[in-house]
């Protein structure tokens, strides 16, 4: 048998085996006992319509207020229409160092 024929036979066998398992599963599901549909408990009458639990009410009052105890005040407060760049001037630019004397390059004839 050629390798191509062996590969075709192997793949066909795997497909047939898969179909057999699928048929067994399908037959098992069809023969299962019918289960009555789900109905909610009669004792649980909370109005329905929402699965979310209610938010817990805070047990202790929130303390503090503004400003918060761990807040750090800003160094600058802008209460007008000024720009932050106008309030903080730019630092002066550094002066570049003067270039040193150029090294002497000997001429070709020397």
Give a written overview of the molecule.
With 110 residues, the chain is an all-alpha fold. It has helices at residues 3-30, 84-87. 0% of the residues are buried. The model has no long low-confidence stretch (mean pLDDT 79).
Feature tags:
110 residues; flat; mainly alpha
| Radius of gyration based on Cα positions | 42 Å
Number of helices: 2
* Helix content bin: 25-40%
Residue fraction in strands? under 5%
Alpha-carbon distance between the termini?
Answer: 89 Å
Average pLDDT across residues?
79
In terms of topology, how is this protein built?
Blueprint: H1 3-30, H2 84-87
Short description:
With 110 residues, the chain is mostly helical.
